[in-house]
Structure formats: C-alpha cells, structure tokens
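FORM 7B - TANDEM STRUCTURE REPORT

SECTION 1: FIRST PROTEIN
SEQUENCE AND TOKENS:
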Amino acid sequence: MYSANGDLYHREREMGLLQDAVGELVLGRPTVATIQGPHGIGKSALLNAVPRLLPPKTLVLRARCHPSESQFPYSMVSQLFDPVLGGAGGHGTSGPGLGEAGPTHEALLGLLRTTRSLAVDRPVAILVDDLTNADPHSLRWFSYIARRLDDLPVLMVATLPASAAAQVAEQLGPLPYLLRLWPEPLCPTCTTELVDRAFDSPVDQELAALCHTLAHGNPLVLHDLVTRLRRTHVPPGSPDPEQVLPIGAQALSETVLAWLGEDDPCASELLTQLAVLGPDTDPAVCAALSKHGEVHDQQARETLVRAGLLEAGVPGRFTHTAVRPAVLARVSAHERLLLHGRAAAVLARLGAPARQTADQLILAGCDWGIDVLRGAGIQASGAGDRESAARYLRRALTLLEQRGVPGADGDESAAKEAREREESFLDLTVRLGAVELHRDLDACARQAAAAADSPLGPVRRAEALARLASPALVSRIEGAQPFVRICGELAALPAPPREHLLRLTAQTLLTGHRSGLRRAARLAAADPGDPAAHVFAGALAAAAAAGGRLGTARRMALRVAAGPTDAPEGTAPGSAAGPVGAALALTWTGDLDGAAALADRLISMSRASDDLATTLLAHLVRGEVRHRRDQHSDAHTDAEAARHLARRLNAPALAGAAAAVAARALVGLGRSAEAAVLLSDEPAAGDAHPFIKALSLQAHGTVAAALGDHATAVRLFLDCGHRLALRGITHPGCVTWRAQAAASYRALGEESASVTILDGAPRQRGPASRPRQGREQGRERTLLSPAEQRVAELVVRGNSSLEVAEKLFLSKRTVDTHLGRIYRKLGIHSRHELAGAIGEELPV
C-alpha cells in the first residue's frame, strides 16, 4: 500500500538500504538482497519498488515463482532469460548452458557465462518473487550464481517467507555483499493514514485503532479488512464495534489463518487447540494433544506471537477478541467434539483439576466421568461458582440415568451395583439440591422431592433431606411436602436418629404440620443445649405463638436467641429454622426489640456464609418488625431487598410475601396508588404457604382500605382470617386482620360487625343463607375448631375424604371422624347440607 506520493508507507529504512544496494550496482559491485517476512507484510511491494531506483539502461530480469511450476526444471531461469534471449533458455530447448541434462556443473557454468555476458555492457538486476516456490534446478542456480558475483555489476533481489529465511541464509553462506531485509509491521500512524486514504475521509480513531489491532500492522490484511468494511458500508465517522468485529474475524480467517495453515501446520494446530480449549490451556496438555512435544509447541507459540495472533507470555492470550471466533469458524463441529474429548482424556490422565476436565467432558458430550463431574461440582461450589457447580452435577446425574438400572436377575453383584447406583444418585441429588438452595429454590424443592423418593430407606432419606432443610423451602407446598412425609416416616421408627428427626420436625412445624412432634419434643428435652434442639425449639416457638401460647413461645424464642452466635453450624441453611422461627415468635408475641436484634444478627450471619435464602427470610422478618414500629421507610427498604433476593433465587412465593410487606410500607408512607401497582405487577404463587397467602390478602386489603374501597377490604381481610384458621394460626398478633376488618366495618357503618370481629365471634348469617327447617340457629352458628374448619373448607370445595386426608397429611379415618363431629355440631347429615350450613362462613 502506497502513500499519496507513490512511496511505501513505513518502509523508509528498507528503501534506504535498497538505494544503497543500487549505489553499489552503479559502482560495478554486486549485491544479493533477500526480503524476508510473513505473508502480506509487503515483500512484493518492496521488490516492485526496486526498478524505480535503478539507473537508466539497467537490464531487469524478473520472475515470479509458483508451486504449480516447481515440477518443471529451470522454470524460474526461463522466466528470467527468455525475454532477453528470445526463448533460447526455455525448458525443453537447448538454450545457453541448459538442455536435457539436469543441473550439472556444465549447465550451471553455461548459465554463469550467460549472466556475465549480459553484465558486460550494462548493470543487471535479477528480481525473483517467492523464491522458495522455484523448482529445485532454479534454486540451485540461484545459490550458485549468487556466490560468484564478486566482479559483476549484478543486483539480485529475492523475496521469501520467514520460515525459509534460515535455510536460504545457510545456502548463501557469509557473502560479503549479502543484504537481509525484514520489513516491520505498520505503525498505528501509518495504519491511520492508510485507512483515511481508503475511506477518502478522516475515520474515527477507535476504528483506526481497531483496524491496526486486527491487522497487526500487516498491509495486506489491512487492505482486505478496509475493503470489506467499505463493501458493507461501515460508517467511518461513527462505526459500530459489533458490526466491525465479525468483519475483522472473517478477514483474519481468510488471510492470516489460511497462510498459517499452509506455512506452519504445527502453529495452526496449536492455534486451533487454544481457540477450542481456551487460551489458558496448559502447554503440557497442548503438547500431549498434538503429539509433537513441548519444544515444537513452544516454537509454534513463538510463530503465533510473531503473526500477531497471540500475546507474548505463557499461556498466551489472543491479541484480540476477533481472533478466537475467526479460528473457530474454520473448525467443524465434529472436529471440536473430538478435540474436547481428547482434551478430557488427556486432562484426566495428567491429573488436572476436576473443573478443567469436567468442562471438556461437558463440551465433548462424553459418556464417562461421573466422579470427575462430582469432584468438579464440589470444587465449584466451594469456590462460590454455583452456576458451574449445578451444571457439573446435572451432567453427572444425566450420565447416571443413561447407564440404566442393573438387571434384577437375583445376582448378588447386580444387587450391590444397584445399591451403589442408588447411593450415587442420592448423593448427587442432595449435592445438586444444596447448590440450588443458593441459586434456585424451586429447583432445590424438586431435588428434595427426588431425594424423598429414594428407595434406600427412611433413615437414608431423612439424612439426605436434613442437608436440604431450609425454612425458605416451606414457602411453597411443593417444597414442604417431602419434609412432612419423610418426617412422618422417621417418627414411626422404633429408634429414629435424633438430629435428623429434630431438624425435619422443625421444618414441618414451619409448614403448619405436627408430624413427629411428640417424639421430637422428648428427644429435645433430653439435651436442650444441642444445636439440633435449638433448631427445633425455634420452630416450636413459632408454632406456639401461632396457636396463641404466648408465654411458652416467648420463653423458647428467648432461649434460642440467647444461644451461641459463633458456632459454625449456626450459619448453615439447615440451622436457619431455629433463629427464623424464634424471630417470628418474638414478633408475634410483641417483643419487637428482641425480634429486631435477632433479625439483624441473622442477616449478618447469613451474609457471611453467603446464604441468600436465610438473608431473604431475615429481611422479611425485619421488615415486618419495622412495619409494626411504624418505620415504614426502613420496612420498605427491607422488603425491596427481599424482593431482589427472591427474584434472584427464583422464589415466587417469597417474592409475593416481600411485595406484600413492601405494599403495606408504601401505604404507611402515603403512596397507596404505588402500592396497588406493586401488588398487581407481582404474580401470585398458586401453591404458596397459607400464611404467605394470608399475608398477601392482608396487603391487598390494606391497599383497598387506603384507597377507600372498604367493602373489598373487608372481604379480603375475612378471607385472610379464614386461611389462617385453616392452618391453625389463631393468634391475632400474627396478622392483624381483625383490627383492620373492624376499621373497614366501621367505615361502612356496620358497628355491630366491627365489635363482633374484634371479639372473635362468628359473623351473623345473612337472610340469603337460612338454616334448614327445624334446626336451631344457634347450633348452625357453632364455631368449629381450627382442625374441623380445615376439613370443612376442603369438603365444601368438593374434595373427597381421601383427597382431604392427602392434602392435610392425615389418615382417611381421622378425616371421617372430623366430619362426624362437624355434622353433629351443625345438626346436618350430608356434605350438601354442610355447604348450605357454612357456605357463607367459609370461602367456597
């Protein structure tokens, strides 16, 4: 590429040396010059500039060699001498000094005499482009003639690639008139000038810098890149990097990478390995993959550095982000899979880190390496990279599934293999669940359900679920059911493991169930200072507060709050049920200072252990405490932090709870319209915990009352109370729906209803729902127990006794017993009459 005045850019030094060689020619002295360098660096441009430097009447002999002509003897010599000898030197003729005989000494002497005769009257310039592509006969002639020019005015200039420089230098020997030229890459200034000239206008400096980086100062690559940019109408003044990079990658692929594959296959192979496996790949691995050894690998790296594809240093990094996609574009998908598979095998053989091997296993789709993937999952989880850990463990589970179940042929070895498979499956499931507990609570619930279905027995299942026991999972029924079921199984054993039973019972207490409660209470009383007993005590405190046993709840909650804070186990997700339950109990019993202090401590501990789920729950509890203290701004801050964590953990039920706390805070701040929008934008979780549903109903009612729609507010508050009663949450301090409903009744002018709801008495029935003929109205208004209300609501909704038993985790016999009591209290005999008798008191 030339400057505006016809000179070459950034070639002042080379042109000066060639000018000196021409000066020697004028004085009658010879010069043999070699122009060496990589493809596209401008060797031919320098060669073509030589004739302009020569004195008048200089005889110029030119030849351009090509691989297709290398099989013809003296094809290059013929190109040089045919124009001046009229074809007498062509191959297949008996020209001066060469005939049918090969490169004999007589033939070479004849060519030397011809050269001398041509240089008698005038200087001779012999210019050869791509000398290494010449036929062997011509190459021998070039070396022979170059060493015998001591007294001749002859200038010989030849271009050759960098890879052949050492070989040609060895052939020519230490000639006193040998001149070697190594053109350097273009500098950024010259690149900018060239790009400006190509676009016929000044270009953006970032575009010029990007062109220089991509071309690495190679004029031919730069010319190809600029041509492509102009062809695709890239604006020179304000280019889009996302548009330039693919064009640059294509230009690199069709120039530098194509030349590299022709000139240095070893370097091309190494570049492919680094592109597919990553630039940080260990040189030992690359050497093992290529089977060339580390010496060849190091030479290949140096070649890639000189070509501007890798940065200097080991391991080398690509000089630009466009290099790797350009290389990958030249590698087929099948070749990539094979390379990843070979890399995985080599890494496993070399004892590389499990994560490095696992990455290649996954990319190659190999059907082996379960232990490697398990180890990689453990490493990634320990490093805090839970996204990668989940990927490794999911792949390991997939491979285990693909192996299939061993044949049940009664063979002892087959039975042992089947048990080992189930053990491995359960271990991987629990490990994956523990990882998902920090990134996707819904996925963790699915892993808990899979662990609960293991055929390895109740103790092994309980041990597995105890590792996943987190109060955040009970926010949805799907997440609570496995713990309730396995806790019941464990409590039925003659001698259940103490720690597992206490932890699982604590989990079930937070769901509103009491599976294994008595057994766990006796075990906890035997050693109340045990960490597992503290977890159980905290959950039991919350259950006691929900049932109205405030003194018991406060005593147990304070005992948990006074427990050790520096115990390592205190930060584990499975231990969070204790402090979370205790904080809820203190909140519901009115000890807001104690609840706030415990929530603060829980947030600090869970953040230190990177337990996002517990941090989320602690923010919700603290937000509730601040709301009750009328610190609405702080409560809103906590709620928003909880909402952010809930979205990050894919926990829609907890996101709904956070939205409810945030909406109530906004109402307290006088931003009711904003609160209504917030609640409408938050999708409801259909299978959320009843307490969360009640909390959401209360928030909707609070917003409706603040907006003046008290009729809707009353309906929402009463629905909230019914849902709490169905789960046995009878303490009015848990959710203040009664006081809010009474306020809305008063706003509607219904004072008697306001007094009744505050007293906790059942509402008077309206005229639309008359008692059956002959029945006493007092009996029909009998207030059912919480357990009977739960059964009655499900029956009214059309559930059979068996379905009610499954949903409430009861036996069918217990459900039938409850129905008999309900019928006697209400004086009815059928399910249809039950719907008519209480259809207005319970939501249908």
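SECTION 2: SECOND PROTEIN
SEQUENCE AND TOKENS:
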Amino acid sequence: MRKLLFFSLFLVFQISFAQQDDLSMSYYLPTDISYNESIPTPEESIGFIPGEWHVSHDRLVSYMHTLAAASPRLKIENRGTTYEGRPLILLTVSSEENIANLEEIRKKHINIVSEDSSQDLSNMPVVINQGFSIHGNEASGSNAALLYAYYLAAAEGPEIEETLKNTVILLDPAFNPDGLQRFAYWANTNKSKNINPDPQDREYSEIWPGGRTNHYWFDMNRDWLPVQLPESQARIKTFHDWYPNVLTDHHEMGSNSSFFFQPGIPSRTHPLTPQLNQDLTKEIGTYHAQAFDEIGSLYYTEENYDDFYYGKGSTFPDINGSIGILFEQGSSRGHAQETDNGILTFPFTIRNQFTAALSTLKAAENMREKLLNYQRNFFKESRNSASSGAYAFGSEHDPIKAYELAKILKRHQIEVHKVDKDFTEAGLKFKKGNSYVVPKNQRQHRLLKAMFERRTEFQDSLFYDISAWTFPLAFNLDFSEDVAIKNAGEKIQELEIPTPEQPEKSSYAYLLDWQNYLAPKALNMILEKGLRAKVSMEAFTFEGNEFAAGTIMIPVQNQKLEQDELYCFMTEVSEASHIAIKGIPTGMTGGINLGSNQFRAIEHQQVAILVGGSISSYDAGEIWHLFDQRYDMKITKLDLKDLAGSDLSRYTDIIVPSTWGGGLNDGVATQLKDWTKNGGTIIGFRSAVNWLKNNDFNDFETKKTDNTAKDVSFGERGDFRGAQVIGGAIFEADLDRTHPIAFGYNRDKIALFRNTTIFMEADKQSYKNPIRYTEEPLLSGYISKPNLDSLAGTVPFKHDRLGRGEVMLFTDNTNFRAFWYGTNKLLMNAIFFGTEM
C-alpha cells in the first residue's frame, strides 16, 4: 500500500517555480486515504507528473489502457476515430460488482426514461458523464483526467468503495483528440527549462489555427445538437446509450479569470429547461464551492455564461432530463503565465479541474435519488405535455436534405416514420421517399420541440451563442408543424439513404437534376472525368416532366468516353451521389431544346481558399469540410504567409473567408485584384465583404443603424452593446430563381442564417438583387429593433465584374457549422455558374 504524505500548501492562485520543480502527486490528490500500489501512477506510465508537460493524446490513451488493465473498476472501449484516425475512448468506472453487471445496470437506468418508469430507485446507481477539453488548447481538463482516472482506480477505503457502488462514471478524457494533440505539441516544443511566464513569449501564442478546434477547425462544443462530426457522434451515442444524470464539460477561459461553475446568468436559460434543473445545478454548485474553499481557490458562479443554446455540452443535457454543468478555468495557455492574480501555473489549473471532478462525484452520490427522480419526472412530464399530431418535413425534388435531417433526429433517439403515400398539407406536398413524419407524442418531445420551434421573444437580449437553430429552416425543407398522425407510415428502425433508379441508357444526352443536395458532387465527378457538361439557363420539359433552370445536360456525342463507357460512368455517378440521372433520346424538348444557346458550357473549376493569419479558422474550416467531406471536391488551402510566392493563375476561384481584426494587407489586395482582373472569380464572406469594398474590388452602399444609447447607465453599457449584436438568427429572403445563384432551389423564399451587421443596400437594377430580405424578415431568433429595421429590404449577396473577372459577396455564412444544408448550394452555384451571372 502506498500512503501519500500530507503536503501542506496554501494556494490562492499560484505556486512558485521552485514548487513546480518539486511537483508531486500529493499536490493534487486527497492525502487522507491510501492508494493501491499495484495501480500505476501517471508518472510511472507516461514519464512525468501531470503538469510538468502537456500530455499528448497518444500518451493519454496509453495510460487509460494501462489503468483498465490494472483495475477491475475500469472498463475501456473505443467508440470510433477522429478525422485524423485517433481513437475516441471511453472509460466506464464503478465498483467491481457493478462493472460485472454493467449492461443490466444500463438497461435498468434506461428504463427510467421509458414509458414504464415505476421501478424502485433506492438502490440504483447514479450515472455521471464527465468529459474533458472539448477545446484542445484548454488542456488542463484532459491533463486532470489522468489524475482523476488514477484516483478512481487506486483510491482505497470504505468511502470510495461506497461511492463507486452508488455511481457509474462515464469518463471521456479527451473530447477533442486532434486539437489536444496539436496543442500539446505546441506547448511542449516551446517550453523552456527556465519557465518564462511572460505572456508575450511564443509559448502562449499558438500559430494558426491553434489547438481549440478539430481537424476541420470546428468548435466541437457547438455540435452537440447538429451532430455532424465523428467526435460528436461518438459522445452523443454514449449519452443516449446511458442518459446520464449529470454531464460535466471542463473548459478554460481567459488567463486573468479564476474558476467558473454553473448555473450561469438565470435570465439566459432556455424556456424549455425546467426551473428544477437550475435549482439542482445550484445545489451541486454548493459542493464545488465547499471543495474550492478548502483549497483556497477563487471561483464565481451565475455570471457571464448561459444555458440557452442546446448545442453546447453543458446545455444539451438540460433538454434531455440531465443536469449539464460547465466548468471554466482561467488558462495558463502553456506552463505558467503572468496574470492579474499573480503567476498562473499549469499544475494549479489542473488541480482545480481535478477538484471540480471530485466535487461533482460527491454531489452526484449525495443527491443520487433526487437526480434519478428528476430524470424520471422530466420524461414523464415531457410525454404528458406533448400534443397530438405530428411534424412533417421533406422536399419534393431533393430526398437527400430530408434524409440528412432524419439522420440527426435518429441520432437523438427521436422517433421518425416513413411516408407511405403522398399527401398535401397547407399547399405543401410531402412525397413518399422524400419526406418523413415525426409524432409529437413521444419520449423526446421536448428535444424535438427545441429543434423545430421558431422563437422570436426572449427574456434577455444577450446570448453566449446563437439565438436560433430551427432545423427545418436550416435545411430549407417543406415543413408542417401539425399534420394528422394518420400520415405516419412505418416507424423507421434503420434509416437508409434514398437510392434512385439506375439511369436509362441514352444515345443522345443525360440530364442531372440540380435540385438534389448532392448534385455538385455528381457534377464534379463528371468534370473531373474530362467530360463536357452544360447548364440550362431556362426551364424546359420532356414527356410531361419539368426540368428547372440549372439542370445539367451531358451530351453523349463528342465525349472522351464511348457511348457504353459513358453509360457505365453515369450509372457510377448516380450510385455514388445518390442522385437520379435521366437518359433521353432526343433534343426536341419543350421550351428550349438541348442544342439551344441557353445551355452554357461548364468549366472544370480549380478552387482555392485563403487560410492562416487573420482568416477565421471556423469559417475556413466549414468551407474546407464542405468541399472535402460532402462533395468530394479538391480545394487548395493557400496560407497567407506564402501567398506572395504562389502562382494564382492555377485557380479559377479563390474564396476569402471572414477575417479577424483589420482584414488582409495591401500586398494581398493588389495580388488578388490583379488575378481577378485577369479572369478569376473571387468570393468573399462576412467581414471579407467590407475588406473587398475598401480595396476597390467593388462598390456598394450600406445601411447605417442608429444605435444611440438613451437612458442607459454606465453599468448597463455592456448589455446595451451586446444587444446590438446579431449573434445568430434566421431571416427570410425572396429568391429570384431565374438567376444562377438560385439554381437548384424550388421555392421563391429562402431561410438564411445571419450573424453579422453588414447591411448591403439593394441595387437600383432589380435583376441584380437575386436574394433580397423581405420587409418582415425575422423567422427565428433575436435581433434588436434598429437592426431589424435596417436589415429589411437589404441584400445578402452581390455580384460585380472587375476586369475580366467576377466578384461575389456573401454578407453571411452559407455553411454555418456544417448543418446549414439549405444554403450550401449558394456557394456551389457561385463556383460552377459564376461566369453566367
């Protein structure tokens, strides 16, 4: 047995460098208990005491496997891999007896949320899901996980035995393996033997894009609801496999801060979250306060943060019968840094995270029956509050978008049904194979309502994140909030992607419907094969079927493939992209004929995107992900630091994502302007719109909003300014479907996500305004009255010529967080049809 010596050390916010050199496990661990000597310590496994170095993900995983092999209290599983191939592991920790009966315990726990929820809870373990460092450069969490896992495996005595008997702990040591690995490399390669706490040292200033994000530069703490990333899919499956009673999410914040734990600002809690949820969160907070008082660490609560957007890790549980808790630790962003509170060291941040993990465990055990009863009553009340009827969503011409939304619902254990036969509701046609029905009266009623509702009235005008995320609007689907349940066909057990019929062989031409979400993938395959393709600028008909403007025509003659080879390839394209391709035997179509000049040749596009420097990694990553993962299209990432030496003539299109700060330098502007004048297409998003205007790529007028503060005190100034921000809301715009930017859309209205206050005035020439906000554009979310007045009638898209090239501007993000499927095609239209605008 190893008895750790008592190590008396009073800290408010710092430890000296001498103490850091003498760092020992007794600095972190409770010293009044014994630890099993047969359980390897972190130092014995990874070669250092946590806090001396930043643990890399491979070493973290290795230690977790070592612990699982050494302790019967632990079970380890690999739930998948990240984009970079790193394992997404989970440790399940409980008493040895519970581990031996884990599946039986899980089923009994799941029964709490089911229809039959009358079982006795007095002897049932409480389930805690504790996750660390979803932002990879907020590394104190994952490094604390080393200590927490060791403590759970090695601590001895009746107290820990009783705790493990009464709890099941789902321990995710690294929510973001790729980001954690990236940051550990940075911090360790820039560490000096003589640790330098100067905030200007290179160690504390990561190179772009930093370790916060995953491989495609997504903030994964915004993906709990959309579930678009493999890391999210793994942790959401774990959540729904267990429905934990408490989920904790360990983060870091600015270095001059102390430690925050929830609840956040009470007025910024989503109305669908029960008040009892916040009461229980506050009660759990008393355990954190006591633990931090004992070690002398500063903390605060009920400030700054909120519980509104259900796509965050600490808020997602609140709409699922659990208690979500956010922890935010002031960050050392390396090994030690000067702050307003003294020198903040990495070991100190780790100890606070470890302390919070222990206090959560204690709270959950002591509040066990209260938490279990809350969960049971949450779902009981959810079912009782559900109305009759159902939601319906679909698209008459695009089965893929509807399928992708159904897939998200299924990941959240929401009951989804097929449509057995076509039906019409309020003028909207819901087709078999293209549509789905979702009953309201089901266990996940509250979550379903949170995902589908439109909300425009709020108790508070400030939001830590977005204020709207209405999924049917995000997918640009036909949607009804109230259809008869009789329209629900068979309940879907395993969702299958819609598969079109095989193309008919043609000796004349093939037609590809651009209204399908995956049409850009199909077109790119065709162009990469070196085949000729044309786009129709007008609608036409054949055998009673209408083909909209934007239809792609692939002639059979004068191609590099023979007729039979072309047929085989078109079949391959149809299968790979899940899109219907129609072979027709004649060019004599209704309206324009296939040989018309209104069919325009499409060039194979070579696309590049600016990255690095002041470019927003979030916006750039979403575009990279769209091309690479959704459409299997190559996109070249041009780093700003290398741009001057790059041969831009290789590219037909260059995308400039939003920028931070003052935009890009004059040299970049000159280089890009010359390239555009020579025939390139430049596409700017969000703040890049202003940068392009300021550098004379184009010119437009903007609406100015009068947001003068009246009767606002000095103490209220922050709230006043925050209320003028459009943090993320949804707005309606009119769509001119004869314009190439709108090809592939089958309605005259479109829902757009907006999180900027760039209000571009409409052009005097009406045909230059293919997308224009309506006079009452707010569909869902918060916007101040002055900003709403300014937005009405403005345009989110502009196209101009510059020399022989094209300039296209989007004031907002058409690719938001990878789940705004409904506007992805706007960017694809700009890429493929830009020269036809």
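SECTION 3: OBSERVATIONS ON SECOND PROTEIN
The radius of gyration is 28 Å.
The longest strand covers residues 771-780.

SECTION 4: SIGNATURE
Preparer initials: ____
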